[in-house]
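Minimal example, chain plus 6-O-phosphono-beta-D-fructofuranose.
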Amino acid sequence: MAKEIKTIGVLTSGGDAPGMNAAIRAVVRSALAQGKKVVGINRGYNGLISGDIHEMTSKNVSDIIQRGGTVLYTARCLEFIKPEGQKRGADMCKVFGIDGLVVIGGDGSFQGAEKLANLGINTIGIPGTIDLDIACSDYTIGFDTAVNTAMEAIDKIRDTSTSHERCSVVEVMGRDAGYIALTCGITNGAEAILLPEKENMSEEELIKTIIENRNKGKRHNLIINAEGSTKDSVKLAKRIEEVTGIATRATILGHLQRGGSPTALDRLHASMMGSYAVDLLCQGKSNRVVAYKEGKYVDFDINDALEMKKEISDQSYRVSKILSI
Ligand code: ADP
Ligand code: F6P
């Protein structure tokens, strides 16, 4: 028989993402509604190991659904990658009576959750990352807010770039994943996009395209470069200017993409996924990841989820190229 969960812990781990607060709120309120005690764990696995754990009430999560960041703070905890750190985390769960744990984060955080599940703590992961790079889920909390923030910023860069008839290289986040770059490429109408997953245009091809665009009468050239592509934005801008004579500026959007009030889509997915995670724990499930797949909320075994691979959509990539002419 599945063990009955009495106390549910919740933590956020890895890079923060807008909508994490909405997910925390959903976990806390759904758990309270099912008669469970809820505790918040500060700073991801760091707080678990050190016992930075406090009881959460419904009031604790009021007025946070609209806020970016995470009220539980987040961290990358190297100690937790080692078996001794994981054992300390599991021991601390026992000290605080945590028998069910919700981990909101990315693939790295899910690896930690899987280790805790093996040590007897029922754990459920919720995909929270602006990168959209969780293979088992069509959606990850934070992506919509991040691309909207980036899109608005890039529109502004485009205004000034057009006025000055310049070329712009704009770097967006995504160390290993090009979803933000691809989405902005289409929604901002970029002339070229550079992604970590694709064999991108060479510098020569890119420069030739810029010159051809200018000859066609385009007043600006917008190149969106994902953080993890092989090209350095600043060096690329310099090179374009040197060869073409067209003034070129590089802008690195950076962490502004991770902040801000979550969009309706992020609040909705976060609320639904948070509630779903609590349902799974109350059903005695463990080592699962909540996912949004083909329009439905579902769950996968963490190990299976970590084995899955996600490909950049060839259809979207092709369309981005067709529309850039
Ligand atoms: P994300 O969850 O966004 O992918 P990270 O990869 O930085 O972010 O992982 C977040 C945290 O998850 C790490 O700092 C570490 O505490 C934990 N973690 C990552 N990989 C493992 C692992 N293999 N085993 C245990 N814990 C891990
Ligand atoms: O959370 C994902 C992410 O924002 C990536 O897009 C980016 O590459 C990375 O985190 C940046 O991490 P840090 O905040 O540690 O610089």
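The two ends are 62 Å apart (CA to CA). The chain is about 40% helix and 20% strand.
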